[in-house]
Input
Amino acid sequence: MFLVGMISWWYQKGLINRATMIISRIRSTLDLFSVNLLLNTLFSPYKQIAAEHIDGSLEDKMRSFFDRLVSRLIGAVVRLFMITAGLIVVLLQTIFGVVVLVGWLILPLVPLLGLVLWIIDWMPR
Amino acid sequence: MNNIKYNYHSWRSEKARISVRFNKPFVIFLIGLMLILLASGLYCLTIGLSVSWFLIGLSFVPAMAIEWYNGELHHMLPTRNPSSIDDVLSADLLGRLSKKPNPLEIAELVGLVSGGHFMATRFGIGNGFLKELSSNNVDDMEEVWQEAWQIYKDTESRNMSAAVLILALIKTSKNGEKLLSHLQLDTSDLVNGIKWHNHLRYLIDQSRINRINGGIARDWSFGWTPLLDKFGQNISKRLKKYDATLDHLASHEEVVEQISEIFNNDSRQNVALVGQSGVGKTQIIHAFASYLLNGSIAKSKTRYNQVFILDASTLIATAPGRGEIEQLLPKIINEAYKAKNIILCLDNAELFFEDGTGSVDVSNILLPIVEDGRMRIIFTFEEQKFLQISQKAPVLTSNLNRIAVASSSRDQTIAVMQDQAVTLEYQNHVTIMYQALTECYRLGERYIFDVGMPGKALRLLEAATHYSDNGLVSANSVRQAIEKTIGVKIGVANSQEEKDMLLNLEDLIHKRMINQSRAVKVISDALRRARTGVRNQNRPIGTFLFLGPTGVGKTELSKALAEVYFGDIKNLIRLDMNEYSGDDDGRRLIADGSKNANSLTARVMKRPFSVVLLDEIEKASDNVLNTLLQMLDEGVLRDENNREVSFRDAIIIATSNAGADRIREYIDRGYDLEQFEEKLNSELIESGQFRVEFLNRFDEIVMFRPLNKKELIMVVDLILSGINKTLELQKISVELDENAKQYLVDVGYDPKLGARPMRRIIQRAVENLVAEQMLKDSVVSGTVMRVSLSQVKRMLDAHDHADKLASSNH
Output
């Protein structure tokens, strides 16, 4: 009863829970690095620096436009840097998650495998 | 519903039985076993034994078991489409149930699990109580299961917890509700208890969930706010993360939704929260700030916006000059607007629209901003102030999106207190019972003014935590908090001292006044009814009309009562009604306390537990009497600001000389008071001195009869004991010869003035004599001064002589 209950949970709800947990952690990491927000605002002026529109001479307007352009470019560079960092962490997390899931799948088989190895008296040379 | 059964052999029941085996020692055993197997396997591996593989492999089994427990068994969910008890029963109970349980077994088991602990602590429903009402008949279980299933459905519980079963046991027991009433509870309270238990579990679950909150680069697209950081409070930063306890109140949830709607459509971007102080306006702001931080529910336009509270007093302190504030405020608002993620909040916004201490009128700056409607601002106003500002600046208020915030209902208030209880318990190291919450609501409604719900109940709950008994905050703690803070006696008489006092109230009062036994008895009865909880709570403790000649003890009885029962003569609120004979004088009775501290309403607000004495009531105008009708009838009076003032903890006594001559006449003719009471009442109504509806408002109309000479001797004794009390400091006491007393009575007796002349006569004869003897050093400390008839005569004659001389000189 004990073993049946445990194994049936392991390969059903347990597995789903584990996969959900891994996905949730990946989502949290994406949120921590604000990846979604940064992609949506990739070219927004960084911290609203020089973001004002100016009514004035053409020269003033051009200067304001370039100021905004520079602010947007700085913003995009900083954001891309953060997005890249976030994606690297997510990639590592995904690989780790896959390993955990595979490990989860084979863990109940380990005692059986051990039993087989003992029976065949296998030892590495 | 009739098919609901309990199946001992179901899959979930089996798992529940396994789960209860996972106690701490068993988990330690599993960890130990795992380590031993692993260590043995590794050892065998090093010495080349192939059994090592099996041992290492086997060590994973305990690890898997622990994982299983944590992942499923520890918090076993109910089956998806439940059809039997074992599908929904909480695992900690299910795992402990026998094959054929009976109600008594359930009563014993619930004490072992968390839901049972909750009900025992919060409601005082322990094992002993449940065992008393539970049978050991297996057949009775059928009814318990059916009832439990219904409660589980009605309360929308996630599973059938011990709390649900406790209510089912009580409901199915014959004496259940009766026994429950001993704890001052009914079944609806236990339903609330189940919901409270469920809610706490919901909060625990919510705290485990990782929320989407924008991350470290969330504010990169928004501007810097150095000025706002300096002058405002960023409540979003203080919250740090979404707080589930803030969105508990259903009415507040609605308001938060409304605010969100306004800020996410194209209308004017402002909100004015208008409501009485204490209804939770600031709490709504916090809930809204928290809502914006929850990326998965907040609407896109305002998602991750931050709420800054601007405080008028901070601004005034930093920029005291009028010009300075007018320069600073536009800069702050401009900064907030440019940052693109700021919602400004002007809490107690009336302080920005009036000049005064701690307030500044900057309406000329705010008006164009409000009219423009692009800057997101939330204003909170006290409702009366909002009306005043509407009158002063109608353009401003017509441009605001007004949301009225009403006082919360009883259930809502209790729900808010349940959330706050968690924090209060942590801060004050106490446990708060459910009965304390309901008592906070009841007494808050009755004794705390000028604040809305839930504010007043919360204020009381906070005060009650300081009166806990062994760390438990009960209804009694709440009563104590009220009694200590506003001096009202709330609970029923418990102490032996008070019981004795109530039982002997007549004797105690008679130590201060002579005879009038009937009047003393009706007053004493009223107090005994009040302190045993028998009286009608929606009326004053007692309302009495004292009729009789002057000097017979009407006022004295009121004073005696204030001193003996209400603890201090200061608890007598006396009004000479001849000062209220004009038609407009009614206004002075109900004047605002800040304008007239001596108005009746102001004095009762300060001292609700008192004797209100309306002296010479017949002299008050009809308008004034009309004003007093509601007070006599319902125990409330509204002051000029329309605030309800409670007289429900006061004794109201009106005195009148009306009918005095008739009383004397009847007594002289040998009638007893009881024989002519009704007749005299009719005469008073017929003569037009009192209206029927006014007289009918009194609980009792009590006649005071004139005092005879024998009683006046007792009055002399009373006055003498008063003199001796005064002389106690000098260690001197005075005694009067019997014939001297008799002489004083003969001289002082005036049937029309009763005992009133006696004090004056004794002052002339005794007090003057004592003063004279003390100055002549004839009396020294520690002596008893005996006053004879001749001395009394000499003193009174000397006084008369002086009076004659004085009048002849004039």
